[in-house]
Every structure is written in C-alpha cells, then in structure tokens.
Amino acid sequence: MLMVGTTGSPPDIPPDATLIFEVELVACRPRKGSRVANATDERARLE
Fold first, then answer.
1. Catalytic activity annotated for this protein (predicted)?
2. Domains contained in the chain, number
3. CA-CA distance, 46 to 13, in Å (whole number)?
4. Which domain holds residue 43?
5. CA angle 9, 1, 16 (to 5 degrees)
C-alpha cells in the first residue's frame, strides 16, 4: 500500500487515499552468489 498524503493528487486521487497496486512477476533470476543453478530450480525451491 502507498499513502498519497493529505493533499492527494486532484482531481483523480482524493486526500488520504490508499492506493493498492496489482503487479505481475514477469521474470525470475537466482540471486548473485546463490547456490541455485537456474531460475527453474529456485522456483521449485520456493514452492
């Protein structure tokens, strides 16, 4: 969540509105230094 504050962003966002964003993960790579060989292995580890 992100708060826009007491001023908002008129006329579209009222004061003190809470914005909720829906995002989609489009790529996944192992962290630098990770012992996981590739993204498929990392995804399986997280599931």
1. [protein]-peptidylproline (omega=180) = [protein]-peptidylproline (omega=0)
2. 1
3. 37
4. 1-47
5. 35
Statement: residue 1 has pLDDT above 50: no
Task: Give the DSSP H/E element, type plus range, for residue 41.
Answer: helix 39-46
Distance from C-alpha of 43 to C-alpha of 27, rounded to nearest angstrom: 11
Q: Is the pLDDT of residue 2 over 60?
A: no
Range 3-35 burial, b when 16+ CB lie within 10 A, else e:
eeeeeeeeeeeeeeeeeeeeeeeeeeebeeeee
Is residue 34 within 8 Å of residue 28, measured between CB atoms? no
Peptide bond into 11 cis (omega under 30): yes
Question: If DSSP codes are grouped into helix, strand and coil, which group holds residue 33?
Answer: coil
